[in-house]
Amino acid sequence: MQGIAAPFTNLDLSLLSQPRGTDLTKRDPPQTFLYNELYIYNIKKNTWSKLDIPNPPPRRCAHQAVAVPQGGGQLWVFGGEFASPDGEQFYHYKDLWVLHLATKTWELVKSPGGPSGRSGHRMVLCKRQLMIFGGFHESARDYIYYNDVYAFNLDSFTWSKLSPSGTGPLPRSGCQMVPTIEGSVAVYGGYSKQRIKKDVDKGTVHTDMFLLKQEKADKWMWTRLSPSGVKPTPRTGFSVALGPNNRSVLFGGVYDEEEEESIEGDFFNDIYFYDLGKNRWFTGQLKGSKTQKKKRRRGDKNADVGASECSKEEDSNTAKPVEIIKEIVADDGTVMTIKQLIPASVESESEEEDSEEDEEDEGAAGPLVEPCPRSNTMMAIKQGILFIYGGMFEVGDRQFTLNDLYSLDLHKMKEWKVLVEMDPKTQEWLDESDSEDDAEGAEGGADEDEEDDESEEDTDEEDNQKKNIQTS
């Protein structure tokens, strides 16, 4: 095992807490080139390590990974995609892998009847089953979004396709799923697009929420949820993890405003909690130190507004979001402006529990420490501590990737801690010209123009393609 300062800048990988020990597992890959590397973050030592295990899955991104405690700890990986930097090569996987953490060995699990090749799907552990929902498949000719549900039994190693009753979610990818303690699964948000006419697509940002509940041994039912409280603003690219007290935690994301020839994104770094028992959303505002609270309450109307310095409006019904402008200087000296949209300060858990706290301490508050607004961050929760790693934001045609690491105690909700700062030497900007230059160095991949994922007859061809990708 090799100790390193921090992994390189990454997108569309997996970050999850191991079922045993105090490590976080990060699986795959950066944005330009695809990898099949495995990194471990030791929480106590605050160190990253690269774990080299023979015969891993082929390199990919936009897959799903779930950790389970059985067998000394296992990491299950399904699906994902290969794509070259220029997008000319594209391939969806439908393979299922398991990493046995006790023996440090990868195993390809071959079981018929599973989902078709896809990426952007979601997978969670629900009792003794891996539940998979949604995703999309894209080829050079067309694309399709899914709303099907599959279950993989961890005892029998068998797939089953569920046919829930009721009205379920429309086809989508990029949604978020969380299991409940009762054995149900909640689905929120997501994204899909449809063809309006030739070369014209219309995207939809979904904000609805559903519950998939088991009625009998083999009978499931969809129910649409109408949560109370303060719901997240519309967005994609947000991250969700199951936290303490039967609550899910949502962080960040982006809302794209599409114009005729450009897309401008509003990036977020806010937190929302969803109480699975009460079916209620609320904002996750930090309590901060007493000096920070004093600054918020006593600051004049013309004071600079920070991410946790928004004052609460007397009438929450008329409160409006606050727009924050931040500037980041790239390594080449380019100044990039990021627009952050902060929801109006409304009722939050920290205000409910801490509204009467005194302000005895004096002194000036230090600078606010928080992750910058971002989407597609990697997120895990271990023993009530929220960890977020990396992510990205865009400015014009340029994309900025991150490899910083933050933590937040969800029990205290006081302040973010910087575990690994962003290294300016690893900051990466990617624009269209960069993609064209890097395309010559793209590794792996298989042209999928002739693939039919709905057919089970292409198994041998897929295996050969995967071997070519893995050994290239």
TrEMBL record:
Compositionally skewed regions (Acidic residues) per UniProt: 348-363, 429-463
Region (Disordered): 287-317, 343-374, 427-472
SUPFAM superfamilies, per the entry: Kelch motif
A Pfam family assignment: Kelch_KLHDC2_KLHL20_DRC7
Basic residues composition-biased segments: 290-299
Cited Gene3D superfamilies: Kelch-type beta propeller
Record-given protein name: Kelch domain-containing 4 isoform X1
Organism: Pelobates cultripes (Western spadefoot toad)
